[in-house]
Amino acid sequence: xxxxxxxxxxxxxxIDLSKETVIYGVVTDQDGAPVxxxxxxLLDSSGDFTAEVVTSATGDFRFFAAPGTWTLSVLHxxxxxxxxxxxLEAGLVEAPLILE
Length: 100
Fold this sequence. Notes:
Helix content: under 10%
Oligomer: single chain
CATH topology: Immunoglobulin-like
Number of strands: 8
Strand content: over 45%
CATH class: Mainly Beta
CATH superfamily: Carboxypeptidase-like, regulatory domain
Number of helices: 0
CATH architecture: Sandwich
Distance between the termini: 24 Å
Radius of gyration: 13 Å
Shape: globular
Structural class: mainly beta
Order of helices and strands: EEEEEEEE
């Protein structure tokens, strides 16, 4: 097991994590390699579309969201994934996604 600390995203200046909820993660393939240019959608508790981002060259994504229960859905030409996220209070919520 690696002893490195968990990595977190670099957030824009002025973000107050005691007041804001940030859902972030990395999209990877089955081998653990990051997946760039994947479309990650944020769906609300009813399953309705709220936002979409494209992953960075290193597979990273992030959403600024209200506290609540969300679903992440990722689409890429090599696979897809879906994950429920419970971001019930302000702060960083890590939600890695692995393509199937």
